[in-house]
Amino acid sequence: MKSKDPFEKFKIVKKKEVAPDTFLFTLEGNLNFEPGQFVQVMVPKIGEATFAPCSSPYNKKKFELCIRAVGNTTNQLVEYLPGEEMLVRGPYGKGWPEGALIGQNIVIIAGGMGIVPLRPMIEKLIKYQKEYKNIYILAGCKTPEHLLFSKDFKQWKKKFGYVKIAVEKGASGWDGEVCMIPKIIEKLKIDANKTKILMCGPEVMFGYCNEKLSEKKIADKNIYISFERRMECGIGLCQHCNIGKYLVCKDGPVFRWDIIKPELNK
Amino acid sequence: MKYDINKHQLGKLVGTITGKYQTFAPQEIGGKVVLAEVKTLSNLRLFSRPTVLPFKKILFPDRVEFGKADGTKSIALVGLHVCDVHALHIFLRQFVDSKLVLRRDNILIVASECEPDINCFCEVFGANRLDGFDIYLQKEEGDKYSAYTNSQTGEDILDEIDIISAEEQSNPRPIKHDDDDFEYSLEDTISRRADFEDFWQRIANNCFGCGACTAVCPLCFCFRQEYKNNIDGSSKICLKWDSCFAKGFSEIQNRNDLRPENVDRIYNWYHHKFVRGKRELGRFLCVGCGRCIVACPANLNIKNILSALDEKIERRINGGNKNS
Ligand SMILES: Cc1cc2nc3c(=O)[nH]c(=O)nc-3n(C[C@H](O)[C@H](O)[C@H](O)COP(=O)(O)OP(=O)(O)OC[C@H]3O[C@@H](n4cnc5c(N)ncnc54)[C@H](O)[C@@H]3O)c2cc1C
Ligand code: SF4
Ligand code: SF4
Ligand code: FES
């Protein structure tokens, strides 16, 4: 009963710098993931890091990983070139909700790299757009240069009508907002009883955003957030990734705010 | 079944097991009782104080290769105390789907009677219940012993020994007092960190964060991945025991430590044992073996800490002997 090597090799077919220190890799092969799930990528002799595939879940021939260099493993990964292979295991975890979104307004809120696990979800929303009411996209990042997937945002604007992007620091030619995300939430006019929120970004932003959402009478149980924690095993064993009594790799990374809020700081 | 045997037959029993299985048992090595592979019968300490490290050092040795556990080999664990047998079952449940650890079917469990000491409190969690083993050994007067079997595998092994006599209906001596009420308020109390912040802080003020408690506990099984790099340039992923007290355990990108303070870590230890573990495995991750009490250089005592958190535990441990 020797178990098989959990890693699968995927060949890099394209690499593109999409923001400072941030690269979009296209890999050949079928990952078969649900939006919001994650994978573990290994750099031999160095370590593993966790990424959320960011391409359409319906493309069964290729998928994309967007990787920002921030430490030991990711600094090595961004040096990989087309033709080389990445060692990937997964996908793991529970992604964004599905059934609960039917008949609802959906508000996507993404801070910085937070757009990454939401992009496949937006593809899914497009596929089933008829089933939802309105779709709103709110995103924020440091500068216009840091905005990932700017072409997609233009597409989404055409499809959904409502796309607001806030940068902390503007630049010449920037015609969007210059503020933080909570400010653009303030301007949102929405029927609180028929709305679900899908959010991802740096953890500090959740509190501020959810405060604004609660002023809009959006209940905590209608807010879904994807969390980042230290992952080692990714399969619910090693206990590195817990938030209170939940494991991010197994019970998440997407959690309902009413359920996870009392567990934070435990 | 109960079998009466003498010292000679006990030796034969262990010999038979060693012949069939790779066998691990408590042995006195360098003045310490440790769980180690049986090479000779002369160091065996079947009725001893708890081994320094529990079975986890054998089932999941440090630096096991990821995805390479061999689930087919069979081993025997001999001389486990009953609390450790309970811990073993919980431990196996944690890893049951992972293929990282042997399954129950591949482990012969031979438990032996313990001598409760001042640190252990198995009765608080029902880990004194005589259950979960294939064979249980009990010391009698003189050089007599009793062997109780609890499975066909156990009986088959005893059949190979010429015993003195056997009895169908007979139970081992109970260990400590049997209870059946294990409803505690621990889960709720420990969940409410904010209400007890001061309590945890006072414990953290003394804790060195050394992780000794996690190293010796049979139900601390956190691990991390590490690379074993060979001279020939090849490298393998290995799993290595980790401690939730270790720096970096809860660190994410940009050196952002989500549990920066000792109080966060010691709280997490208790929270895992009595809240998260219960949720995941249906049992507390403590069997009251007392190892962490012996190991702690700061004299922190889980028995006293749990007593302070739950009145029923307090009564059970102190038997109502508190001056009021
Ligand atoms: C669900 C999820 C999805 C993510 N998706 C993406 C994504 O799509 N794109 C992206 O760029 N990032 C993503 N991230 C973040 C990404 O995983 C981290 O940036 C990455 O793991 C950093 O790894 P590193 O080794 O380069 O950084 P380092 O800074 O070197 O390591 C990260 C931290 O872990 C600690 N650490 C390292 N090794 C160990 C060890 N063995 N034991 C204990 N601690 C250790 C380090 O001290 C450090 O603080 C995601 C994270 C999660 C949880
Ligand atoms: S927490 Fe302490 S007493 Fe409980 S099982 Fe672990 S080592 Fe034994
Ligand atoms: S052994 Fe004692 S001092 Fe060391 S981490 Fe555990 S509780 Fe703290
Ligand atoms: S990453 Fe190991 S338990 Fe979640």
Automatic annotation (TrEMBL), chain A:
Residues 5-98 form the FAD-binding FR-type domain. Keywords: 2Fe-2S, Electron transport, FAD, Flavoprotein, Iron, Iron-sulfur, Metal-binding, Transport. It holds the Pfam family NAD_binding_1. Binds 1 [2Fe-2S] cluster per subunit. GO terms for biological process: pyrimidine nucleotide biosynthetic process. The keyword Nucleotidyltransferase does not apply. [2Fe-2S] cluster binds at residues 233, 238, 241, 249. Its cofactor is [2Fe-2S] cluster. The keyword Iron applies. GO terms for molecular function: 2 iron, 2 sulfur cluster binding; flavin adenine dinucleotide binding; metal ion binding; oxidoreductase activity. It comes from the Bacteria. PANTHER family: ANAEROBIC SULFITE REDUCTASE SUBUNIT B, DIHYDROOROTATE DEHYDROGENASE B (NAD(+)), ELECTRON TRANSFER SUBUNIT. This is FAD-binding FR-type domain-containing protein. It comes from Candidatus Berkelbacteria bacterium RIFOXYA2_FULL_43_10.
Automatic annotation (TrEMBL), chain B:
Keywords: Iron, Iron-sulfur, Metal-binding. Coiled coil: none annotated. PROSITE patterns: 4FE4S_FER_1, 4FE4S_FER_2. Residues 198-228, 277-305 form the 4Fe-4S ferredoxin-type domain. GO terms for molecular function: iron-sulfur cluster binding; metal ion binding. PANTHER family: ANAEROBIC SULFITE REDUCTASE SUBUNIT A (PTHR40447:SF1). Pfam families: Fer4_22. This is 4Fe-4S ferredoxin-type domain-containing protein. It comes from the Bacteria.
